[in-house]
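INTERNAL TRANSFER SHEET
From: sequence group
To: structure group
Subject: GDP-mannose 4,6-dehydratase

Please process the attached sequence and return the structure record in the designated field. Keep the field labels unchanged so the import script can parse them.
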Amino acid sequence: MTKKAFITGITGQDGSYLAELLLSKGYEVHGLIRRSSTFNTSRIDHLYVDPHEPGARLFLHYGDLSDGARLVSLLANLRPDEVYNLAAQSHVRVSFDEPEHTGDTTGIGSVRLLEAVRLSGIHTRFYQASSSEMFGAAPPPQSETTLFHPRSPYGAAKVYSYWITRNYREAYGMFAVNGILFNHESPRRGETFVTRKITRAAAAIKAGLQDHLYLGNLEAIRDWGYAAEYVEGMWRMLQADEPDDFVLATGQRRTVRDFLDVSFGHLDLDWRDYVRFDERYLRPSEVDALIGDASKAREKLGWEPTVGPDELARLMVDADVQALKFPERPWVDTVELESWGEVTGVR
Ligand code: NDP
Ligand code: GDR
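Return from structure group:
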């Protein structure tokens, strides 16, 4: 029997990799997309096959995490085996500008989806995209047992989603799990997150298209992994015998400064010649250091990342150099190049 998955946030970085992974495993994939006045599906266009074609296994449905009734009717009709809740207002800095909207989408959106599962009476496994931002000020290394101390409206909204997911597991016996993921990046990363901002700028500066790069706090420490490997961990969590919560991380610490060194160095550039400070990119309260301990996922799920932060930086710079040459395919990366025909069946 073909398994059916429902993904919110399918147009985002993780949604696109997860859709690819599930299609390669033979799933029928249904994605929630927001109506927008401009196209917002560039990260999944390469996976899309006209639904009238016999081989089509990817289907998109309009909806929004702010619209609970729509979520109920969609789930009741689709009856998926697995639900992945990846949708969120996911930018930490923006969450200080839009705290209420972030709370509504990143927090309450999760309970709307959990309620939709419950009210539609379906038996499904539920994945919640929890975040290392929930740890906030708690000192590293952080694991599943570290107490939360969020430092932003985004982090606080994710803590609510974490606990409401656990509550539905405990209260209703739902197979509902939290993946507590540390930062993961890729050539498909949104352009305003610091890694992608850096790798795009390095490529553009090298090509003579940009003079400067404006950044905020260069001392922040993060644990950066490769998104394509993290979606495999999400899937494994839903294949486990028992529902449980897991940290996914590389365990490697790098500062923003380190990421600049590797990215610009890869193109024989010295970032100090180009980077300027802009206080606009500081946060009212910062998360200084996130370094994850993913031993539980390694032991219980057999999940282990192979791409560390330096290789990741080089991979992203290479992809951004390529993207300048082929602007019509900005999402291109190595996973894509190796598995393109096999995954999509369209080439
Ligand atoms: P992105 O910002 O790339 O994608 C977010 C997705 O959510 C997009 O598809 C977006 O749609 C969708 N979305 C936003 N608001 C709504 C809404 N109200 N209703 C329906 N859909 C909505 O995030 P990532 O792919 O990087 O992350 C995926 C999830 O994992 C997020 O929940 C994020 O908070 C979380 N996370 C991410 C980490 C990371 O390092 N990447 C680490 C830990 C957790 P649209 O394209 O239309 O904007
Ligand atoms: P983060 O990622 O806040 O960790 O959240 P981001 O890349 O935005 O920031 C990382 C660190 O870099 C510093 N920084 C800058 N950040 C941005 N965006 N722009 C800048 O110009 C800049 N200069 C310095 C930040 O202050 C911060 O310390 C990401 C998101 O994907 C969340 O959704 C996810 O939950 C967490 O990772 C884990």
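Handover comment: The longest helix spans residues 99-120. The pocket of guanosine-5'-diphosphate-rhamnose (ligand 2) is lined by residues 90, 92-93, 131-133, 182-183, 192-194, 197, 215-217, 220, 222, 256, 281, 283, 286 (CB under 6 Å).
Transfer complete.
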